[in-house]
Amino acid sequence: MNTMDLDELNETAVSAAKRLGVDDAVALSARTADSMIRFANNSATVVNRVEEAELTVYLAKDRRKAIASTSNLEKAAVLKFVRDLFASMKGLPESEYAPLPERPTRFSPSRLGFDRKLEDADDQLPGLAKTAIDSASSAGGKRSAGVISAGSGTIAILTSAGTRGTDSRTAITLNIRSFAENEGSGHGLSCSPCLSDFDPEEAGRRAGEGARSMREASEPEAGKYEVLLSPTVASNLVETVAGAASAFSVDAGTSYLAEKVGKEVAAKSFSLTDHGVTGGGLGGRVFDDEGVKTRSNKIIESGVLLGYLHNLTTAKKWKVKSTGSAGFVSPHPWNLEVGAGDASYEEMVKGMKKGIILTSNWYTRFKNYRTGEFSTVPRDGAYLVEGGRVVKSLKGMRAGDDLQRLFSSVRLLSKKREWIQWWEVDTPTLCPWMLIEGVTITRAYG
Prior knowledge:
Layout: H1 6-19, E1 24-40, E2 43-61, E3 64-70, H2 75-88, E4 106-107, H3 125-139, E5 143-159, E6 164-179, E7 185-192, H4 200-213, E8 223-229, H5 231-244, H6 247-252, E9 272-275, E10 296-301, E11 304-305, H7 312-318, E12 335-338, H8 345-350, E13 354-358, E14 361-368, E15 373-378, E16 382-386, E17 389-393, E18 397-402, H9 403-408, E19 410-422, E20 425-443
Parallel strand pairs: 4-6, 8-13, 12-20
Antiparallel strand pairs: 1-2, 1-5, 2-3, 5-6, 6-7, 8-20, 9-10, 9-12, 10-11, 13-16, 14-15, 15-18, 16-17, 18-20, 19-20
C-alpha cells in the first residue's frame, strides 16, 4: 500500500471500522512537508526538511467513543490499529453522543491559503533569513536569532456515511529576536499563507529597533496604566477569549463567558469572528473533524457575546446547530479576526496621558479560568508614554487583569491590522493595535 495515499488510508480505516459494526467512523489522514532554517548570532545553524503523515480515527458504538492517531501507515498496521481501537471501547463508559450527519457531502478544496511556491521553499530560506538578519543589524540589533518555517499540508476526510474531501494549506512564518548592549532585545515576526505577502525585512527592522531602544531600560512604578498592545500581544489574549467561547470550556466550568450569551462582554468597539477559511488566514479548512462544513462564526459583535463554538455533541446538548468547529472533544477556532478601528498608531500614542506600549509577551498564565484572571510577562520592546510622547524604555514587569474587564476597557483600535501566528499564538489571528485603560502593572521582581 502507498503509505502517502491519503484517500486509500481513509478507505482502509473506515471500511475496517464498518466491518466491526460501529455506529459512526471518521478517518482523517494528513500529510505535511515543512522546511526550516534556524539562525543564531547572525548565522544559520540548522537547515532541514521534514515530511510526515498521520492517520486519526474516530469510532462510536453504543454511546461509547474512541479517538486515536497513528503514524504507522502500512495497510496491515492500519487494520490492526482500527481493531485495537474498537476493542478499547468495551471498557469505556457511555458518554454524551451525537451521530454524524447521515447525508454525505463531497468537499472541494478551497483556493484560499495555498501557494505552490511554498511547497518546496528550501532554496529560498537562506536568502530570506539573511534579509531579516541584515535588516535587524541595520536597525541597531547586534546579534539576531530566530527561525523561518515554510511548507504545505494536506488533510483528507472520510466518514462512514460517505462524506469525503481534501483540503490543502501553505504557510511561511518568521520569528526573530535581536539583541544589543545591556540586555536590550527586540522581537519581530511575519507570517503568511503566500510568499508574496511575507516580509522578513520589516520583521527584522522591528527586532533591531526594539533591541537598540531597550539598551537603557528600567523597571516601571507599579500601578494602573493605559496600555497599548501590539497585534502580537493582543492576539495572545484574543486567542484565550476564543478558547473561552468553546462550548466545551463552558461545560467544563473553565470559561469566564459562561451564561453570558446576549450580554456585553467587551467594549462596543470590539468584535471577534472565527473563519473556517479566509483570505490571509494560515489555518482552517473547508470541513471540520466531523465532516461538517466550516463557516464564519461571529463570537462577539459590538461587545455582545453572540454564541459559543460547537461540535455535534455540544450542539445537541445546547439544542443548537454545529458551528463547524469540531474537534471531536473540544470545539475550537480556525482563523480569528478582530474588527478594525479608526485610529492610527501615532494617534493612539499621542492620546495617551500616562501609559505603556507593549510589543511582545510570553508566559500568559491564568489564576482563575472561570473568572478570566490572568497575568502575562512583557518582554523585548516596552515603553513608557507621558503626555503623548515615548519617554523611556521599560523592563522587568508583569501585566495582570481579567479578560472581561480588559476587553471592556478597549478605548481605541487601529485601522491597520496584522496576521499573527507564533509560539505564543497557535490560532492565526488578524488583529489591530489595542489601547486599553486601567491595566495593572507590577514589577516582576521584588
